[in-house]
Specification:
heterodimer, A: about 120 residues, mainly alpha, Arc Repressor Mutant, subunit A, two-stranded antiparallel sheet, 3 strands, B: about 325 residues, alpha+beta, PH-domain like, four-stranded antiparallel beta sheet, 8 helices, 11 strands, membrane (chain B), transmembrane helix (chain B), transmembrane (chain B), DUF1648 domain-containing protein (chain B), Tscrpt_reg_HTH_GntR (chain A)
């Protein structure tokens, strides 16, 4: 998968990286047992500090999405991938409904955040 | 030679590439022929001291093949090898667009010449002063192989790497591109590993080790050791697309290569059959002088590079990497 960071986005870089792995897992682009790039390689390619990538991986480990194994790096955990088709359908339905009502994306995201709190 | 745009041929990248191809082709072929000449002429000076016929083939129990000093018999290996090095020279001139291809082919040429020359010098040298060639002790295969490997590797490593050759034209407008925001940095990282080459390599290592032990020919153990190192370097490769371009790096750290983003003319996806396209697995020169890191049959990321060069690496989901590489190559043009 392609990792992207936007240093001007105002979101910490490690949060940006962790968010992409979460999306990758939920979309099925990353599957159980798959190895994430070595932190050194990814940090070098994105021209960020290796600790930024390690922090993102630790965040994902704390969420139970990846396992950090000595010598193997970060591996997508078995518990991370499940049948998320229903969730995707619900999100799509939400987006369609918001579009029908003309609700702004910011409002939809705020509503979601409220609900998830 | 002048051209309408006034560029002198030395400053024209394509002409420069063609010239380095011809120079390497000519130089390596002449060097190989010189080595072959030495390998033939040195034993010729010993004619008075050699038995006639001389031993030219060894079995497990000593010499079992003999050749008369008269006639063309002794010249035959040199002639066959001379034809082969000329053929390799032609291949370099025609296909040697990439420095890696030139290094492999030139190293092979001079290494093979050194193998034949050393074999002749050592096997005939040990027969000086013998009355009967059946008393000849050793063909010197071990030392000859070692010399050939060292000479070939030295020639390959001594030849220059690819020089920077930035593209002057934009990236192929029809090539797929990943969308990138102006402030965004992006990277694609993949691994490629396994494949039938590993099993075959392991078999070769086991086979040569068994032969060495059974024959109690201990220098032969060098072969499985060298093959083992080679195999370890080919176990796994990390493939990365980022701001710099496409990097392929063995998990061991070497060998590695970079196709700079500003030399990418087009990145795409191609179906690779290592045996058909490259004659085997690993880091190779294939059809048309294409350089490939090929570990298995299936999709590969193909980069068409300036100077008529192309590079392919077998990797899963190469379309993503190719699209990002095209987008970053666009960016490198600005």
């Amino acid at each position: 998968m392609i990792f992207r960071i936007d240093p001007t986005a105002g979101v910490p870089l490690y949060e940006q990286l962790a968010a992409q792995v979460r999306v990758g897992i939920s979309r099925g682009e990353l599957t159980t047992g798959e190895r994430l790039p070595a932190a050194r390689d990814l940090a070098d390619s994105l021209d960020v500090n290796v600790h930024t990538v390690l922090k993102a991986y630790q965040l994902l480990r704390d969420d139970g999405l990846v396992e950090l194994r000595r010598g193997r790096g970060a591996v997508v955990a078995a518990t991370a991938t499940g049948d998320t088709a229903a969730l995707h359908a619900a999100v799509r339905a939400l987006a369609d409904e918001a579009a029908r009502l003309g609700t702004s994306p910011q409002t939809v995201i705020s509503l979601l955040e409220e609900q998830l709190r | 030679m002048t051209r309408p745009d006034g560029a002198r041929p030395d400053h024209d990248p394509t002409a420069r590439g063609l010239r380095s191809r011809r120079v390497v082709a000519l130089a390596s072929t002449l060097a190989s022929l010189a080595v072959l000449a030495v390998g033939y002429l040195v034993p010729l000076r010993w004619v008075d001291e050699l038995p006639d016929p001389v031993a030219t083939h060894w079995g497990t129990d000593g010499p079992d093949g003999f050749t008369s000093l008269d006639g063309i018999g002794l010249l035959a290996p040199t002639l066959v090898m001379a034809a082969l090095v000329v053929l390799l020279g032609v291949l370099i001139a025609v296909l040697g667009t990439a420095a890696f291809a030139r290094r492999v082919l030139a190293g092979t040429s001079v290494g093979l010449a050194a193998l034949v020359a050393t074999l002749q010098i050592v096997s005939l040298g040990t027969q000086r002063g013998l009355a009967d060639a059946r008393d000849a002790t050793d063909a010197g295969i071990g030392v000859s192989l070692l010399v050939a490997l060292l000479v070939g590797a030295t020639v390959g490593l001594a030849l220059p790497r690819d020089r920077p050759l930035p593209a002057t034209a934009p990236v192929d407008p029809d090539a797929p591109r990943a969308s990138l925001d102006p402030h965004e940095r992006a990277a694609w990282v993949a691994r490629t590993r396994g494949g039938p080459g590993l099993a075959i390599g392991a078999l070769a290592i086991a086979g040569t080790a068994v032969v060495a032990v059974v024959l109690e020919t201990w220098w032969l153990l060098l072969l499985p050791v060298l093959l083992g190192l080679l195999l370890a370097a080919m176990l796994e490769f990390v493939v990365r697309v980022d701001e710099r371009g496409l990097q392929v790096c063995s998990a061991l750290g070497v060998p590695r290569t970079l196709v700079p983003a500003d030399e990418v003319e087009r990145a795409g996806v191609v179906a690779v059959d290592p045996v058909r396209d490259f004659g085997g697995w690993g880091w190779r020169v294939g059809r048309g002088g294409r350089v490939g890191v090929v570990v298995r049959k299936g999709p590969g990321l193909l980069v068409e590079r300036t100077g008529g060069r192309s590079f392919v690496v077998t990797v899963d989901d190469p379309d993503e990497g190719a699209a990002l590489l095209n987008a970053l190559a666009d960016r490198a043009r600005r």
